[in-house]
Structure formats: C-alpha cells, structure tokens
Specification:
This protein folds into 2 domains: 111 residues, Nucleotidyltransferase, domain 5 (2-Layer Sandwich); 126 residues, Nucleotidyltransferase, domain 5 (2-Layer Sandwich), CATH 3.30.420. Helix content is 31%, strand content 21%. The chain is built from 9 helices and 14 strands. The strands form 5 sheets. Strands 3-2-1-6-14 form a 5-stranded mixed sheet. The chain has a 3-stranded antiparallel sheet with strand order 4-5-8. A two-stranded antiparallel ribbon has the order 7-11. Helix 2 crosses helix 4.
Length: 261
Amino acid sequence: MPNPKEQYVLAIDLGTSAAKVALVSLHGEVCCWESQRVPLHVFPGGGAEQDPNEWWQAILTLAKRVLGKGLVPLDDIVAVCPNTQGAGTVPIDREGNCVGNAIIWLDTRGAKWNARLMQGPINFQGLDIFKLTRWVRLTGAMPVSSGKDFVGHVLFLKNERPEVYQRAHKLLEVNGYVDYRLSGRLIATPDTMGMSWLTDNRDPKRIVYHDGLIAATGLFSLTLFPIRSIQVFGLLGSSMWRMKVLFTTSTTAILPLRSSW
C-alpha cells in the first residue's frame, strides 16, 4: 500500500516490444504499473524500425492509466524517470518533429557501410589497423560489423535514405528523444552517446565528441547535440500539461537513468 508520507517517481521503461510506466516510491516500492505493446516494423535486408510518435502516445496512455488509479496525490509524485532501449537513432527537423522512423538497435542495414568505413590500405581481417587502433584507443571499441550502432544507422540513412538524412536537423538517441518530449530540451548525455563511437571515452568524467572520428565517418557535428553530464534534466514540458495526464506540481523534474537494452 502507498505510504502517505512517501514521495514517488513515475518511471518510464521503453523497450523494444513494449512501453511500461510504473509508480515507484523513492525507496523502490512498486505501487502499480501498466504496459502496452509498441509496433516493430521489419524490412528486407535487416531493417528494424519503430515510429517515435507511437512510443510517445503509448507513454501518455500508460501514464494516464497509472495516474488515473488515484493511488497517491499528484503532489507526492516528484519526478519522471525515463529509461529506454539503447543504440537507436531518431532523425528530427528544426522544430523537433520526426522526419522518419527510428532506426533501432536490431537494424543491420548499416553493416556494409560500417565495413567500408573500417577498411583501408593495410587490413587485418577486413579492418584497417590504423583506424582500428585509433577507434579502440579513443572509444574502447569501434563501429560494429553488424551495423547495429549509431554510426551504422546514420551511414545507412545518408547513403540509402538521403531524403530523410537531408531533412534531419539533428540525430537523437532513443533516451534523448523521450527526454526531449518530456522537457523540451534537446541535449545528449554521456550514457547515451558514449556508445556512438564518436566520442573520446578515455576520461569517463569528461566524455566529449571527437572531431577526428566524426570527420572519419563523413558526418557533420552539427547534426549532434551537445553532451551534458547532468542528473536533473529539466522541468516538464508544456505538451504534458496540455495532455492533462501528468503532473500539476511545478517542482516536478526529470531524472534520466542509463539507457537499457
């Protein structure tokens, strides 16, 4: 049973097959939760996409169900905490609208583009030894052969979906997209971009984009959001208020967790 002296978080878990929203106390007690499946669109050649608008509508629907139970006063809910699938890419325009589906972590259509990226004049098992050394030294890894990463997704969009790539003002990771829909803030965090293979990860307290890696992929840094290391993300955006499904207290904040797979 909810404790009348307790404070609560509305927890959002956006997975590949379903979205979940739960009401959780600050001591970890789960008061209630709801889930809803989200469609997965599979295409020939290893394509796997989801519609970010369907994610958002599922989150709103579930939040309405959870809060509609009336288990705790709204003023006792002090934060929203989103946690999502990782290694997905969401292209948005200057107004923050999606210009195409999200390319999610299951998508392998970037494999051939990652393979071409990592080849060079002196190769070992298909990898240029100088590129391999540089990537591993800076990031701890490299663009993966399966294409299931940010670089593979973006290279696929650039080369095979140029109409989407050209319309995209920015490219977001999945958790960053949900954070944006909640707060209206367009930024990235170390946990979401550290596995983009475009950042210098040698100092975990200072993960920053590396211009050389970005240039090596042929991408433009302007399509990436600045990385901020923060715990409190921001106040809830006006879209939540209009929907009348979330908080009525002006002190509500968003506390991003690390992205899950």
